[in-house]
Amino acid sequence: MKKTIIRAIVILVTISISGCKKKEIIDGNLPGLGGDTWTKTNIDDWIAINYTKPYNIEVKYKWDGSEVNMGKTLVPVQEDKVIPVMDAIKKTWIDPYVSITGEDFVKKYGQKQFVLVGSPQYNPNNTVTLGEAESGRKITLFVINYFSKSNTTEVKRMLHTIHHEFAHILNQNIAVTSNYQRITPGGYDATWFNYSDAQARALGFITAYARASKDEDFVEMLSTMLVEGKVGFDAIVNNSGTGKTALLAKQAIVISYMKDAFGIDVYALQAKTEAAIKAL
User: Fold this and answer.
1) ∠ at Cα 25 (20, 26), nearest 5°?
2) Among 32, 64, 110, 175, which is most buried by a count of CB atoms within 10 Å?
3) Does 210 fall in a domain?
4) pLDDT at residue 115, as a whole number
5) SS3 at position 139
6) Whole-angstrom Cα distance, residue 70 to residue 113?
7) Do 142 and 210 sit in the same domain of this protein?
8) Are 61 and 133 members of one domain?
9) In 3D, which of 153, 154, 64 has the Cα closest to residue 117?
10) pTM, 2 dp
11) Tens digit of pLDDT for each residue in 89-135?
12) For residue 199, what are the domain limits?
């Protein structure tokens, strides 16, 4: 019995040693672990001319796992979408602001990095993240692979995300007055996703998401005003029922805030943005 046990141990050690000698060779580099290089294309040249050189904005479209939440299932960007998406953003976000404020405003307050992701980011509460702003320096845009200039709804959705995230950056630099949140103090709700936009508007919130917090409320107001245009926004407010008075009060604060904090006439910016969206 003892000899059998010793023989078995010897066999196991031999197998273990021989197993350690096996090596699996992986050919090529693992993308996203750093040190990745690639030949620049017309995409990189276009980004340099339209974003990096004039505004010092980096646009990352190559997959980089360090820039996203690796706990999520995400898809890289289809490269043929990069220029159409970033061109639309420039024409409907940067250009309207520049025409009203000059280039220095975008250079000063504009985020320094865009990170593009092809797919949506799905969340445990059954919501979908379309964009994220981080510390006033970075905007991550999702759902890029679904973009089409011929789809007006999709174009407006993406542009709403851009103006929403940029409004966060403005608010992070100069906070909107606390009087804003006092207009509908009891309406903020962490379970905003259980309600429709129509229900939210009746309570004085421009969208259901605006109920998430006072900051989301403010940026949703500004982004909706810009993307929908004056006629479209006024139609939303006029059809909001009992929420109309609160929405008008919030609109007035947004207009004053943009003028006092940044010297921007919201109506002029609204007209420029609306014209740019229609031109697409």
Assistant:
1) 135
2) 110
3) yes
4) 93
5) strand
6) 19
7) no
8) yes
9) 64
10) 0.80
11) 999 999 999 999 999 999 999 888 999 999 888 888 888 887 777 76
12) 174-280
